Amino acid sequence: MFKRFSVFILGALFLILLAEVVLRTASVFNSKPIPFRSLQADQKLVLCLGNSFTEGRGAPAHLSYPAQLERLLQKNFPADHYRVINLGSSGLNTRQTIRQVQKQSHEFAKASLVIVQVGQPNWWNFVGFADYLMKKEYEVSYFYRFYSVFNHFHVFRFAVRLWAPANERTQVKCEENRQADLQEILEEVSWFASREKLKTDEVLERVRRDEKYFLEKNVSDPYGPRYAFLAYLASLFFNDEQKSLGYLKEGILQVDCAPSTFDFNPYAMFRRLEAKWTSDKVKKEATVFKYELDKKYPMKGQWLAGQPEKISAWTKAELKELIALLKTHQTKIIIQNYPPLPAGFYSEEINRILREVAHEEKLPFLDNEKVFSEMWKSGLKRSDYHALDEHLNALGYEVVAQNLLKIIKSL
């Protein structure tokens, strides 16, 4: 009996090992390469790493800062045949950026210059944070420890995907609720735009775009993004702080938000909107809710607090790791920070960290926070350079591209 059991266990382990090898091999062939066109021998390649500010949200793709920078470089250095590739992806945090560079190491070795603008999503995208906490021996629940360790294996991630169809009926119900809520919101936004004499098509396009981004991401619990999105709209479009807080409380109580959950969740949105609330009644209700949550659900209270000091330390450590990784390719590096954003976006903290890392690593640095702050002080209108969702618009990205050109000329 024991012999049969041993043979069974060894056989199962062998099959799991074989499956892991097959999945890892498949992932290598299935990985998306950097979108290269055929590079000429004398062509210089510039890679732009970052999240939505690099991707160019708030402007058409051809007016993102990488696209505008490519045209400026080709105009100013026609003999170098510059090619700028935009690797920005909305919500990408430092850990995901490091993985991106590791997976495409061969392509990064071809780059003459890499422009880095990462870290701001770390305050709501916790991918990799649990691993950092464990390395630093901070307290993390056993579930998150288990998940973080096993999530490194392709077999485990594949099994999680296979398990998803078991929740099909729940997913269908969630989808029905989501569509009903969003339809109501879209109708309200249309009325709101008409009343405030805004461009209805522009507002609705933005809402639909955010719906796709925030609600169609691969997250473990479909409720979180929905409630965060509804709270976002209630606050942004209707300035209804009470309704916004209500959505967030409901979402937090229903969602088991793990540190590895993708960027947009009710915990992060709570912290983002809390900084903007002006009603004393809403502020008091929010304080009471956080106190009660911390008593009844300590882990939820921990993540609602955001652990800003630990997140800052994690972000800086990973930025240093990213820079060290890029330096192995002997490529030039420029670091830039973010334009000043509302308090809930934590732009001041990440800008401080990016500034420190650039100084410590002795790298060229574009201080967008300083550049745009001085522009507002000089009397220029912030609304002329920003889109509705706080990203830059085409004119704002042009300012970034022009300043990057100045730095590149000095290299």
Any key phrases for this structure?
411 residues, Rossmann fold, five-stranded parallel beta sheet
Q: What this model shows, in words?
A:
It is a single chain. The longest helix is centred in the N-terminal third of the chain and has 29 residues, at 2-30. Helix 17 links the parallel strand 4 and strand 5 (365-366). The chain has 411 residues and is mainly alpha-helical. The chain has helices at residues 2-30, 52-55, 65-76, 94-103, 105-108, 129-135, 142-150, 154-163, 168-195, 200-215, 223-236, 241-254, 266-274, 280-296, 298-305, 308-327, 347-360, 368-377, 394-410, and strands at residues 45-50, 83-86, 113-117, 332-336, 365-366. It is globular. The chain has two domains: 45-125 and 309-410, SGNH hydrolase (Rossmann fold), CATH 3.40.50.1110; 167-308, no CATH class. It contains 19 helices and five strands. It has a five-stranded parallel β-sheet with strand order 2-1-3-4-5, with helices on both faces.
Report the top-level CATH class of the largest domain.
Alpha Beta
Compute the CA-based radius of gyration.
23 Å
Supply the CATH superfamily name of the largest domain.
SGNH hydrolase
* Number of E-state strands: 5
Largest sheet: 5 strands, parallel
What class would the helix/strand composition place it in? mainly alpha
Report mean pLDDT, rounded to a whole number.
77
CATH topology of the largest domain: Rossmann fold
Strand content: 5-15%
Global outline:
globular
Segments where pLDDT lies below 50 for 5+ residues?
Answer: 164-175, 211-223, 257-263
When the domains are counted, the total is 2
Q: Cα distance, first to last residue?
A: 72 Å
Second-tier CATH architecture of the largest domain = 3-Layer(aba) Sandwich
Number of helices: 19
State the oligomer: single chain
Instruction: State the strand order across the main sheet.
Output: 2-1-3-4-5
The H/E string reads HEHHEHHEHHHHHHHHHHHEHEHH
Helix content: 55-70%
